């Protein structure tokens, strides 16, 4: 995850401060030097780092900090507040047209992820805002760009408008007319990119902007490109007057400096961020939540939102009732694994948990192959077998293994995992801690 290294280094700085009790100006000066190095190593713009350290230092050497009973906590509070301010202070919403059809123009360098993340954005706005999106293929140069947009659009059940190799300006204008006729109130233009900024590219983008007057011009930036992303952002903003930024690949092994620099360099807000390869792995950008993650404080609000999105209240009540009656079945086990999968898995959840809890879980992840085996095995059982696994004898195990394309040993492993889960639910429903959580080695192993 982006910022992992930065979070660790800042955590070490704050740990040293906590160990000192009372702080002197020299202590704060040394801490700020380490914070500056950590930010520069995370590929944050030098000017942004210089201004950030200046602002934090001026506040941190005040009497309210030096004379505080918990000066280290005051310094952390100041750093947190300045990080939030650096990334935009408040969550920036999408500009919505008052005329009925909102037009969002996606721009950026080739490889930043415009096509895939444009489709993700369309799906997010359909789900959260009830929009009826239309994706528009305005990239007529990159091989298979149109096919890629049609593929992801098809996977998300979102219509795609394309006119082949027609002039992109004409495509954009025709798409908006099409959207108005067919009831699409959100149009997302997937424009062409280049490996570098050139006059021809900018002239085309300016022509599209001039003709369709988009409500939003979102610059799609690959967070893993670091300082290059910031330079590109400045150039696109100067040429087009972007209205916001979408950061992609924030889940990668990135230093993350772009997230801390783009807002300061362009003055334009980060509105969305891509946090994974799955087509639902996109979320609004919250400066306060991101600052909290960077400082190792977790992001419980986003975790709660993710849980709510994959939470079925009726199923939860039914499961609670089954747990009380010790009637937890393999179908219930399957549902719980699916819900964990929908939330993004253990690794994503860990990134949102504060302090040592999240760190202890970092690196844990769902084994996709094992999950696929588990699903295949359960779905190869009869309803009676799922409801009462005790009837699964040797011959049934062979049939299930053959039907799921697995081995009998895989079926046995799953049944053992299920027994552990049932034991857990039974004992927890009685207010007891299961024996296998008492500190010994974990038996059986879950698929993550």
State the main characteristics:
Four Helix Bundle (Hemerythrin (Met), subunit A), 8 strands, alpha/beta, 8% strand, 434 Repressor (Amino-terminal Domain), Rossmann fold, 448 residues, 3 domains
Describe the structure.
The chain is flat. With 448 residues, the chain is an alpha/beta fold. The longest helix has 22 residues. Helix 8 packs parallel to helix 9 and helix 18 crosses helix 20. A hairpin with a 7-residue loop joins strand 7 and strand 8. Helices cover 57% and strands 8% of the residues. The C terminus is likely disordered. The chain has an eight-stranded mixed β-sheet, sandwiched between helices. It is built from 21 helices and eight strands. The protein has three domains: 83 residues, SRP54, nucleotide-binding domain (Four Helix Bundle (Hemerythrin (Met), subunit A), Up-down Bundle), CATH 1.20.120.140; 196 residues, Rossmann fold, CATH 3.40.50; 130 residues, 434 Repressor (Amino-terminal Domain) (Orthogonal Bundle), CATH 1.10.260.
Low-confidence stretches: 433-448
Domain count, please report it. 3
Topology as a string of helices (H) and strands (E): HHHHHEHEHEHEHEHEHEEHHHHHHHHHH
Tell me the total number of β-strands: 8
* CATH architecture assignment of the largest domain: 3-Layer(aba) Sandwich
With strands numbered from the N-terminus, the spatial order across the biggest sheet is 3-2-4-1-5-6-7-8
CATH overall fold name of the largest domain: Rossmann fold
Q: What integer value in Å does the Rg equal? A: 26 Å
Report the top-level CATH class of the largest domain.
Alpha Beta
Number of helices in the DSSP assignment: 21
Structural class, from helix and strand content?
alpha/beta
């Amino acid at each position: 995850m982006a910022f992992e290294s930065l979070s660790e280094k800042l955590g070490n700085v704050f740990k040293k401060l906590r160990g000192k009790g009372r702080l002197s100006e020299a202590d704060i000066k040394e801490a700020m030097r380490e914070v500056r190095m950590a930010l520069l190593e995370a590929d944050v713009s030098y000017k942004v780092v210089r201004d950030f350290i200046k602002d934090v230092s001026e506040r941190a050497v005040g009497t309210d900090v030096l004379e505080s009973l918990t000066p280290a906590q005051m310094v952390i509070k100041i750093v947190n507040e300045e990080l939030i301010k650096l990334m935009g202070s408040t969550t920036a919403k999408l500009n919505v047209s008052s005329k009925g059809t909102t037009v969002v123009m996606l721009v950026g360098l080739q490889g930043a992820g415009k096509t895939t993340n444009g489709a993700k954005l369309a799906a997010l706005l359909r789900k959260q805002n009830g929009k009826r999106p239309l994706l528009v293929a305005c990239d007529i140069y990159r091989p298979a760009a149109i096919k890629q947009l049609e593929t992801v659009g098809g996977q998300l059940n979102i219509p795609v408008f394309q006119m082949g190799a027609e002039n992109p300006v004409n495509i954009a204008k025709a798409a908006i007319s099409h959207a108005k006729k067919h009831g699409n109130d959100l149009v997302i233009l997937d424009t062409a990119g280049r490996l570098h900024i050139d006059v021809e590219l900018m002239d085309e983008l300016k022509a599209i902007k001039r003709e369709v007057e988009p409500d939003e011009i979102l610059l799609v930036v690959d967070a893993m490109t670091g300082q290059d992303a910031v330079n590109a952002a400045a150039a696109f903003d100067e040429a087009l007057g972007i209205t916001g930024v979408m950061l992609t690949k924030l889940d990668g092994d990135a230093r993350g400096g772009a997230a801390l620099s783009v807002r300061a360099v362009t003055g334009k807000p980060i509105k969305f961020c891509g946090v994974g390869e799955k087509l639902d792995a996109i979320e609004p950008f919250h400066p306060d939540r991101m600052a909290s993650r960077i400082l190792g404080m977790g992001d419980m609000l986003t975790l709660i939102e993710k849980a709510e999105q994959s939470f079925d209240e009726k199923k939860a009540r039914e499961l609670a009732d089954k747990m009380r009656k010790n009637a937890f079945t393999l179908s219930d086990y399957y549902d719980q694994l699916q819900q964990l999968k929908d939330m993004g898995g253990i690794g994503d959840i860990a990134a949102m948990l504060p302090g040592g809890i999240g760190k202890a879980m970092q690196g844990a992840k769902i084994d996709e192959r094992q999950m696929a085996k588990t699903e295949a095995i359960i779905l190869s059982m009869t309803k009676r077998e799922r409801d009462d696994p005790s009837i699964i004898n040797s011959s049934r195990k062979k049939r299930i293994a053959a039907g799921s394309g697995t081995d009998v040993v895989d079926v046995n492993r799953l049944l053992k995992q299920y027994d552990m889960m049932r034991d857990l639910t039974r004992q927890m429903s009685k207010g007891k801690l299961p024996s296998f959580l008492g500190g010994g080695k974990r038996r059986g192993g879950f698929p993550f």
